[in-house]
Specification:
The structure is a homodimer of 373-residue chains. Chain A has 2 domains: 4-11 and 250-368, Lyase, Ornithine Decarboxylase, Chain A, domain 1; 17-237, Alanine racemase (TIM Barrel, Alpha-Beta Barrel). In chain A, 28% of the residues lie in helices and 24% in strands. The radius of gyration of chain A is 22 Å and the shape is elongated. Chain A contains 11 helices and 18 strands. In chain A, strand 4 (60-62), helix 3 (65-73) and strand 5 (78-81) form a beta-alpha-beta unit. Chain A has helices spanning 16-33, 47-53, 65-73, 90-98, 110-118, 148-156, 180-203, 216-219, 241-246, 278-281, 344-348, and strands at 11-15, 36-37, 39-40, 60-62, 78-81, 102-107, 127-132, 162-168, 210-213, 230-231, 256-266, 271-274, 294-297, 302-311, 316-320, 336-340, 353-357, 363-368. Chain A is of the alpha/beta class. The interface between A and B is large, with 63 and 62 residues.
Chain lengths: 373, 373
């Protein structure tokens, strides 16, 4: 146990109690609706963190095969790799199967299905595949009513070493839903989209064992997720300013902050310089409401109106949104501040270690995270 | 030696010939003007890369003490840590001195000077200090004519274990100079600012052994750097779209690209989905001219008008700037593309390994990089 005096800044702090509280919130939703929770571990990429929100033997979702290997090493067996698979990753996928991982991959085109079936001998066991459905026009996937859907699944089913398991989607457009009513609508649209795809396949005699949906705003919209067999979400465990701005959480729920030191004061320009630049905070500006993040004191109390207005690689410039002068008591040279992140996934991704606090200002553990691809 | 067939995407490619060519350009400038080149190693943070642009026993500049430790391990002795020092880093600085590193740190306030002198017993040997001068109102430092300057240096000189070495500045405002004439003006302003500070100190009988300037646009402006004893610059070794847009380099000089695979095609929306999102490309939008980067084919030929318009964590969405339909031949499922980065420092910072090409599409080496703080 140590206070912050031996922490070199910038450092990524995780509030363990808040993480556990946030984890419980989505667990409760999934338990109440009897839906499997397949947490996305991409935000913190840490086995120790996952122990709180996806304890073994939970199924998990990963965004890279490096994450899959790291979590497999820790004993996770049921892993969904939720980025469209390409042939140059077949070897890595097979490597996971050889380690005993029950991996599931996703595709969204006939070309990808044909590639998989023509290379199926490269996989030691049957490879689970989901087809990605686009429910909100925000990224990947095919429309539920696309004639491609049946062609893809038919192609997959020509091969005994490829197992079509069902459909999945990510309602990323929910990040633009600032009212809960809109998030409820989006959650319904999300489920309706994958259910429509499953119904079309059902008419062709093809069953979807898995109907997977997910995004933190829809998962926590407080509505039924009708038809879904599993929910994927990630940032709900830490939350961030984007989620707080939407109203999905309160600012005090945010479990991740960046600890930084004041390295300089420019009273004539009303600017405070800190040692957290974009290398620590990331360059994610979220909804462009808070620069590169909001400023809190070392205990985590938000200092109203103070935000990181600019960043360089290892410098952050703090200003007040109304240009107020720097109060002498809060920003002394060498003093510690915390920055609330716009986007926890991006900020956490800049660190390979997290300093874990149990008693707000007492670091109790250091967690490592996975890295790379 | 291997071609790209065994590279898992996304991957960071470094073109060794271009890196060497760019390195030589600034070396030639510094040699012609008889100014020491203290290259900033923050862009690639790689000893193997530095062997091309800052071969041992070159002096170097670092942006973190983790970089300093990593380069010290490789034999670098003369290291400038170019971010304002705070007390929670004294122990790490002393650790470097104990390893035999001749480290120099920077400060810009009397509070920082008083902190250093009151803790000087924590350093095993004399600690070299530069005072940061602000020449362009863009970040840290004090004005050359600030009455603080003499107070800071006088305070430093009260302590035998602290050695005032001189002044330094970073002309970051040069990143906004789109005409070479403006970069020449900025280079003159940069040198004039630190020379003015040195002159004020000289009048008080205090000599500046080091007068350090630096930024890639001013360093390569093609003018004399009058009075400077050393030049610091970093991104000149790889360059990027920001530098090309300024006119500091040509696009074909850019030595760093991100190799990515096409994971999906959406012909109805004129969108190509690739496996390089903001985790690989960074969220740096540079001058907001090219989204998250320009698209080139696997050989590195820019595909005119195609750019990364959106990113998620592990997805990039490529569009044509005029909304052109996707040509069938260039973006087939699984094919490789390269993304030219807006800001090489930010993009390189997302990777811990670089795939080094000597023959454009042949990977000859893998380089590691330093990480963290």
């Amino acid at each position: 146990m140590s206070d912050f005096s031996h922490i070199v800044t910038p450092a990524c702090l995780i509030d363990k109690a808040k993480l556990a509280h946030n984890a419980k919130r989505l667990q409760t939703v999934c338990e109440a609706q009897n839906i499997k929770l397949r947490a996305h571990v991409k935000t913190l990429k840490s086995v120790e963190a996952a122990a709180l929100y996806a304890p073994l033997p939970s199924p998990i979702t990963v965004s890279t095969l490096a994450e899959a290997r790291y979590f497999a090493e820790a004993g996770y067996k049921d892993i969904l790799y939720a980025v469209g698979l390409t042939p140059n990753k077949y070897e890595a996928v097979n490597g996971l199967m050889e380690r005993g991982v029950d991996i599931t991959v996703i595709i969204d085109s006939l070309a990808a299905a044909e590639s998989l079936t023509s290379h199926s001998r490269r996989f030691i066991g049957p490879l689970n595949v989901l087809v990605e459905i686009d429910v909100d026009n925000h990224r990947a996937g095919i429309a539920a009513d696309s004639e491609q859907l049946l062609k893809i699944v038919t192609q997959l089913n020509t091969d005994n070493n490829i197992v079509f398991r069902g459909v999945m989607t990510h309602a990323g457009a929910s990040y633009g839903c600032f009212k809960n009513a809109d998030r409820v609508s989006m959650a319904k649209q999300e489920c309706a989209g994958v259910m429509a795809a499953a119904a079309i396949l059902g008419q062709a005699g093809i069953e979807c064992h898995t109907i997977s949906v997910g995004s933190t705003p829809t998962a926590l919209a407080g509505c039924e997720h009708f038809g879904a067999t599993e929910i994927r979400a990630g940032v709900y465990a830490t939350f961030d300013l984007v989620m707080a701005d939407l109203g999905v959480c309160q600012r005090q729920d945010i479990a991740l902050t960046v600890l930084t030191s004041v390295i300089g004061l420019q009273h004539d320009k009303n600017r405070v310089i800190v040692d957290a630049g974009w290398m620590a905070l990331s360059r994610d500006k979220g909804n462009n409401l808070h620069g590169y993040g909001l400023v809190a004191d070392r205990e985590g109390n938000v200092l109203d109106g103070w935000y990181v207005s600019q960043t360089n690689q290892e410098h952050g410039i703090i200003r007040h949104k109304e240009g107020k002068p720097i109060p002498a008591d809060k920003f002394a040279y060498g003093s510690l501040l915390r920055i609330l992140p716009n986007h926890a996934c991006a900020t956490a991704g800049q660190f390979r270690h997290y300093q874990v606090t149990e008693d707000n200002c007492t670091v109790s553990e250091t967690w490592k995270s996975a890295d790379g691809w």
